[in-house]
Amino acid sequence: MAVGEVGGKRERTRAMILLCSAQQFAKHGYNGVSMDLLAKAAKLTKGALYDHFKGKDDVYVQSTSTYLETALKKIKPVHGEETVSAEEALFSYLGKFLDLIHSDLVLRRLMLRLVTESTSSTVQEIARKALAEPFHYTVDLLSTYRPEVDAQECVYSFYCNAILREDLTSIMGVLSPNKTAQTSTHTLLSHFRKTLA
Questions:
Q1: pLDDT digits (tens, 9 = 90+) for 121-172
Q2: What backbone torsions phi and psi does residue 91 show, to the nearest 5 degrees?
């Protein structure tokens, strides 16, 4: 067998482990996942996992970072979108983000669990790897569009609201039955636009 074939198989195995692990961490949370569960989900031995990763923290950071980076790249602006205004670019990007977290339960749950269950060191590492670039892109757009607002605080608030909103709609329906139908991307973007006014 050629060296390239071995490397290719190893990379495919690693990619499969990362995907299976991200799904398990999204479903069960960090504390609900063991190396045994990850090995079983990936249909590998525990030893095979340790061949690729140092331990559970390493699998968590790598799988979560990879999943988030891959998902968020789907909404990254393509070349040529720079010709639109900062306002159009901002609301287009945020709309794509809302559609993405609405349609990708694994992404949404990973982000939610990241901020509610992770240790500060894993959150910081994942944030640096996967979330810093999209966050700063959004902050830069908002700063250009509305330089007088605290862009970092507004963007942070928007992302928290967007991530939590999807999972709290059932509570919202109990507390405010007339608001149940208003969970669309358009509604949240309208609310964000009003907070900037």
A1: 888 899 999 999 999 999 999 999 999 999 999 999 999 888 887 777 666 6
A2: -75, -25
pTM here is 0.86
Residue 53 near residue 59 (C-beta atoms within 8 A) = yes
Distance of CA 138 to the CA centre of its chain: 14
SS3 of the chain: CCHHHHHHHHHHHHHHHHHHHHHHHHHHCCCCCCHHHHHHHHCCCHHHHHHHCCCHHHHHHHHHHHHHHHHHHCCCCCCCHHHCCHHHHHHHHHHHHHHHHHHCHHHHHHHHHHHHHCCHHHHHHHHHHHHHHHHHHHHHHHHHHCCCCCHHHHHHHHHHHHHHHHHCHHHHHHHCHHHCCCCCHHHHHHHHHHHHC
- pLDDT tens per residue across span 35-45: 999 999 999 99
Angular region, 29: left φ>0, alpha ψ -120 to 50, beta rest = left
Question: What Rg do the C-alpha atoms of the chain give, in angstroms?
Answer: 19
